[in-house]
Amino acid sequence: MKIADLNQLKISTLLPSPKGVALALLEACRQEDISINEITKLIQTDPALAGRLIQRANATKQTTRAISSIAEAVSHVGLNAVKQLAMGFSLIDQYSKDPSNGFDYQEFWSHSLLMAIAVQKLSKTTQASSSEDLFSCGLMMRIGCLALASIYPDQYSQLIQQQSRGIPLQQLEQQYLQTDHNELTAAMLINFGFPTIFVEPIYYHETPENSGFSEGSRPYQILHQLYLAKQIADFALTKESERSQCISELLLLGGKIGLDTETFGDSIDQIMQEWHIWGKILKITAKEQLPSFHKMMSAAAPRPEDATNASSLRVLLVEDDPTNLILSKELLSNVLGHTVYTANDGQQALALAMEVSPHIVITDWMMPIMNGLELTKSLRATEWGQNLYVIMLTSIEDEEEVIKAFNAGVDDYVTKPINIRAFRARLRAAWHYRQLQESWERDREQLKRFAAELAVTNRKLEYYALTDMLTELPNRRSGMETLSETWSIANRSGQLMVIMLIDIDHFKSINDNYGHSIGDKVLKEVSSIIRKTARKGDTFCRMGGEEFLVVCQLGNADVKSSILFAERLRHQISQQQISIGEIHIRITISIGVALKEINMKNEDHLVIAADKALYAAKNAGRNRVYLALKDKLLAAPPPPSTKKVDPPADKEK
Ligand SMILES: Nc1nc2c(ncn2[C@@H]2O[C@H](COP(=O)(O)OP(=O)(O)OP(=O)(O)O)[C@@H](O)[C@H]2O)c(=O)[nH]1
């Protein structure tokens, strides 16, 4: 995260800053021993702030009883949030009238308010943070833009205009102002006393992929809620004709934080309602009421209402007659506002089309070298030419000829001389076709992305379902699946089958002596030794607690080699000192080995036999291997060669 150095920028005195009671609150909250009583007294001096605070407290309270006093509102909302809300409200009051510098202050706050309400709503679904804290984060997360607009009024309005031509604002800000709104926001929020846990996610809210936060962590969750809140705010303020393009992306993002379409749609509707209510309270103009999200989701692609909507198409005009070419070009570019490329015959047009990828090809019919029909057929023969919209210009409106043109692949025809109004109307149809095509392509891309993300999520879920999270060994469920598969194969093939149950001796004393987290580390260490010592093909899992299961690979499963392996493992663990920081621990394990026998009905009987052997090993003094064989429990040869290490686990410092 790069934070702007406010002093170096020499702009600190020009930065938007809270005034009056908000400023006093900011100062007061810097004192560690400030009491709610003192804060309440301060707020009482500003009736507008007091009223808004009580309204906010009521907006988030769980009970039906209304909060009516400032003290109650302060303790409900929390000191931190009171301070942040006071700052946000104070800034709105001071910076909401548009000075004539081109920066739309009302739209800025309207957008910020939307982000605040949206992130608060989303936070309730994941409970990553207090929703009041997040409300203030949403309200202030683009405060750097406001700052830049106030410090560099003229330059900043020019940058905003350039941004609307497709250059990212952050890039323009860095280029012309040597800082950007995110750096400045971070610096200002730190100055206002916002905790880093919020400032960092706010800094990355436009580019979450650059944050490096680990998946599922608290900053990661906050960041993704802020990101989604911004997308929702952008969506609400975008032009109606462009709204449908954002819907699938929004649904995908909602899905990522665990919201199904129904719940997500309802949340968006509630956000929009609250936006209007809060807009009135703070005197910020919220846009007209949007239709319900479900309605917007099922709406058909918009049709252009006038020619301005249908402008800016890339048109390839093919005409051999120079006068007609000039006239048509003039009409298309100057009157109708399209970008026009020209060619004099079909062959030239084919080459140019490949180069400029036009949206529409308007071609004359009769031309030398390659006529309009041949050009259309050639275009349709290519993959990229399938979706081009082709309009044929013709002087005769003979039905047979027209059918011929449509059979060759044209989408429409216009008779010459061109009638401007009719031509404009037909281009609108072409524009609509283009819109549908783009939305279809977008949906397909999103579907691909969604499928890829779903595959990753499913793989992760599968991993989590079969893995013990502490030791990262396969878990009991996975072990039981292997056991039952191996049992079936051994049954069919008649091969020998051996399993082992391993249990750490006196593990409870490790927890008791050193605490649970050291106990966890010992479990991890033992798992790692088992993993390293196990023979190739043997599968092992953590059964739970301090018990592990090894299912020997059928080829390895003769009793002698399995006992040797168990002994080696036991010996290895008894010899290895486990060091965790300053603490050094030696532990031992007991192992029960069992062999599949004819009288065993299923794998459970095999586990019971191994358990009996384990119990016998424990009873015989622990740190040893026992074998269950033909209803007998035998100490496994060779007997433990190492000195018996008995309870409790010794502590060496
Ligand atoms: N740290 C930690 N402890 C666990 C975990 N799962 C189980 N335990 C503890 O493991 C201990 C098992 O204790 P016991 O079943 O009495 O067995 P033991 O102390 O190993 O004694 P013996 O098996 O008789 O040698 C209990 O104290 C559990 O709380 C875990 O995931 N982490």
Automatic annotation (TrEMBL):
Keyword Lipid biosynthesis appears in the UniProt entry: no
Class of the enzyme per the UniProt entry, highest EC level: transferase
InterPro entries the record matches: CheY-like_superfamily (IPR011006), Diguanylate_Cyclase (IPR050469), GGDEF_dom (IPR000160), HDOD (IPR013976), Nucleotide_cyclase (IPR029787), Rev_trsase/Diguanyl_cyclase (IPR043128), Sig_transdc_resp-reg_receiver (IPR001789)
SUPFAM superfamilies xref list: CheY-like, HD-domain/PDEase-like, Nucleotide cyclase
GO process terms (BP): phosphorelay signal transduction system
SMART domains per the UniProt record, alphabetical: GGDEF, REC
Catalysed reactions, semicolon-separated: 2 GTP = 3',3'-c-di-GMP + 2 diphosphate
Modified residues (4-aspartylphosphate): D364
Sequence ranges assigned to domain Response regulatory in this UniProt record: 314-431
EC numbers on record: 2.7.7.65
Keywords: Phosphoprotein
Gene3D superfamilies, per the entry: 3.30.70.270, 3.40.50.2300, Hypothetical protein af1432 (1.10.3210.10)
Positions of the GGDEF domain: 495-630
Domain of life: Bacteria
GO molecular function: diguanylate cyclase activity
Region forming the signal peptide: none
A Pfam family per the record: Response_reg
Occurrences of domain HDOD (ranges): 15-208
Identification of the protein by name: diguanylate cyclase
Lineage per the UniProt record: Bacteria, Pseudomonadati, Pseudomonadota, Betaproteobacteria, Nitrosomonadales
